[in-house]
Write a structure and sequence with these properties.
about 0% strand, mainly alpha, about 80% helix
Length: about 90
Amino acid sequence: MNLRHPFLVLGAAGAFLSVALGAFGAHSLKTVLSDELQATFETAVRYQMYHSLALLIVGVLGTKLHHRNLIVAGWLFVWGSSCFREACISCP
């Protein structure tokens, strides 16, 4: 298995980011954010983890199958999680 497959690397980095942000939100932001913003933050972190897991699956499949649709799906997951992250950062 090629552990340098870009979707494996991006999925692992995204999962790490999800765990780090989730811990930060649970411990540091609890006293700063309102309940509504806390729930929004938790949802964003959860969706980030879902996209990261999907990227890991695409990466594992991509090491075995070299299909154009897998590559397109992987980059769409990267694009989607990036757009969602940008939208959450710019939320008031």
